[in-house]
Structure formats: C-alpha cells, structure tokens
Amino acid sequence: MKPRVGPRLRLVLLAAALGATAAVLGATEWATCPAWAQLQAPRLPAPGSPAARALRVRAGELDPDLSRVYIFVDKTGFGHQHGVEGRIKAGNLRVAKASAGRITFDMTSFRADTKEARRRVGLDGTSSEQEQEQVTANMVGEAVLDVEHFPTATFVANSIRHFDERDAAGKAQFSLDGDFTLHGITRAVHITATGGQEEGYLHLKGSFPLRQTDYGIRPFKKALGAVGVADVLTVYGDLWIKK
User: Fold this and answer.
1) pTM of this prediction?
2) At residue 59, what are phi and psi to the nearest 5 degrees?
3) Nearest CA to 120 among 220, 234, 203, 212?
4) What is the pairing mode between strands 221-222 and 227-229?
C-alpha cells in the first residue's frame, strides 16, 4: 500500500521540484518556464462580468457598454408616443465645482421603440421591427436629427454637486449643470440625478426636458399636422462611471 501524501507534504515536494528546476534552467530560462508562468499569472475576472468590463475603463470614465440614454417622445394629434434608446460614445465625469466632465452621445446609434427603450420611459406594449425602422428613419433623417451632418451631441458638465440629503428611496442625490450641444446649437441645461456605488461604478440616473425647437429642430409631423410628435421631449441618462 502506497503511503498517503498530505497537502503540506505536496507543497513541500512541489517547492523542492520547482527549486531544482530553477537551479538547472537558470534565471533566464526559469522566467519563461510554463510552470512558473502559470504560478505567476494573475487571476482574471470571468469574461463579461462587471469586474472584467471595469478593467477596460479608467477611473472617472463612463463605461460605453453599460451607459445609455433614453428619450420619451410624446405625441400630438393622432400620433403615437415613442421610446428611443441611444449609446454613449465616450465620456468622463467627476464631482467637482468646475470642469466636471464631458459626455459625447453617438446620435447614429439612436433607435426608436426598442423593447428596453419603451420599458424605461414607461410605455406599454411593443412595436414591430418594421415600425421601429420607419420611426427611426424619420428620426435620424435630414428633417429631424440629421445624423449625417450631426453624428454626435455633447454635454459639457460645468459642475456636479452631491447633496447630503437622500431621496425617498435612500439614493444619493446629485445636481449637474452644463452646456448641451445638439444639431450644432448649444443651450444651458440643469439635470437632477440619483445614484450610488454599484460593482465598482458610480451609477447615476437623471433626466432633463429638451425642447426640439430650441436646437433648430422642427418636430416631426405628417398628414398636414394631424399626426406628429410633441416639441418637448424628456431625456433620461443611465450612466456608469468607473470609480
């Protein structure tokens, strides 16, 4: 019967074997030895996990894979309400009294009435793929957003304030003031937001009203105005900022 080898003895034998190998190979060869490389390799987080995503983003930067913007589009006449989803191209934010950050929105990514967009803006029901494509084409086309000439929009945060008081749900409250540029026109905006620490991020959710005509955009209408969308939209930001 073979004697049983306990965990401690295994470690001693392994150390001795590695030491002997190092002595034979020398420092240079030993550094490239597979056994040594395996022992020294850092433990990486699972692919797709929040920790893995966070490795690709530096502190203070927005994670473009997680961050989104949603827009509630109200109706006029016999029109329909819509939800719009868009992506963040790049950005950074920090709590500061001045020069608090900048966010660039990818206007070419905006899509109307995705399932998530309708859910986030509080609309029931779904929209067919054909309807989504038609509404999206009207929205990003020359008559409205004209993304061919204005592929991005930007928000330059002049200040971000953190309040001591929390909201009814216990979330921290923030106030963002800055300049929003859309369709080549810049206006001052004020954003209220709530958030907290989640999985290595500061997760902020905020909103602000946007009047299309303030940015030189004529709200979409057809059938002599009997069907159309309202001038004032509500923009919701869902931002994940690396800590």
Assistant:
1) 0.76
2) -55, 135
3) 234
4) antiparallel
Q: How far is the C-alpha of 152 from the C-alpha of 216, rounded, in Å? A: 15
Residue ranges per structural domain of the chain? 7-40, 52-242
Tokens of 81: 């309400």
What topology is assigned to 52-242 in CATH? Lipocalin (2.40.128)
User: What phi and psi values does residue 123 have, to the nearest 5 degrees?
Assistant: -100, 135
Q: What is the pLDDT of residues 23-34, one digit of tens each?
A: 555 545 545 555
Residue 194 CB partners (closer than 8 Å, separation 6+):
167, 169, 171, 172, 173, 174, 204, 205, 206
Residues of the chain under the 70 pLDDT cut: 1-55, 224-225
Q: Which residue in 212, 167, 161 sits closest to 191, CA to CA?
A: 161
Distance CA 107, CA 16 (A): 61
∠ at Cα 214 (212, 216), nearest 5°?
Answer: 75
- Spatial CA neighbour of 112 closest among 93, 89, 92, 140: 140
